[in-house]
Amino acid sequence: MPPQYQPGRATVRASAGTWTLQSTLQRHGLGPVAGVDEAGRGACAGPLVVAACVLRSGDAKRLEGLTDSKLLTPAMREEFYSRIVRRAEDFAVIVIPPAEVDRRGVHIANIEGMRRAVAGLANPPGYVLTDGFPVRGFGRPSLAVPKGDLTSACVAAASVLAKVTRDRIMVELDAKYPEYRFGEHKGYCTPVHDAALGEHGPCPDHRFSFVNVASVARVGARRAVVQNGAAVEVPDDGPFVGEPEIAAGGVES
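Request: output the structure for the sequence above.
Response:
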């Protein structure tokens, strides 16, 4: 990282609280700080959803208890989602459809979604925090934070925005395809989902680049795509589409 982007030496301990890293960066003139996280990376059906969020520095008490969305109950996630949408300084949510995940591969789609989420913020952040692994291409300095959704409030906020958005989409898909019970498992590879796949085959909202989906897809012309570094085959007549468009309200669909 170029020296001009490096903050002065500061010791930041996780035990100091989830707002400490954001506050330290802001104190060194590197704010506003955006947190970025995704939901649905490991699911074999439904979209990949990525969010970026900038929290107001004085909202620690109003968002007390905010943490990794996976550790919150559905009711708590909905409550924090409402607070974050109402109180956040800025946020953007990107919805990447299954066809694009198939076409790009889940890791590349995830990284590109992170870049698009940050670019979708109304005002460019001064610094970007990502959960777990480094990402380049934000046009801003960034830092990978181990277990970021547990240790950084703005990353936790992004995880809630992404998780709640995706869960709502999966509930809508459950109404459209009740035989898969998407509302129950949200598209992840559970025994219930695997049994439904075996009985009914995949629907258009499944990810055909995932091995369990490809293995039950109907026999037909196939072509290879890269999924997590490994080439697998998916139907040539699967629904591969172009880039999603930005919709109103800070959410891509």
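Confidence is low (pLDDT under 50) at residues 10-16, 219-253.
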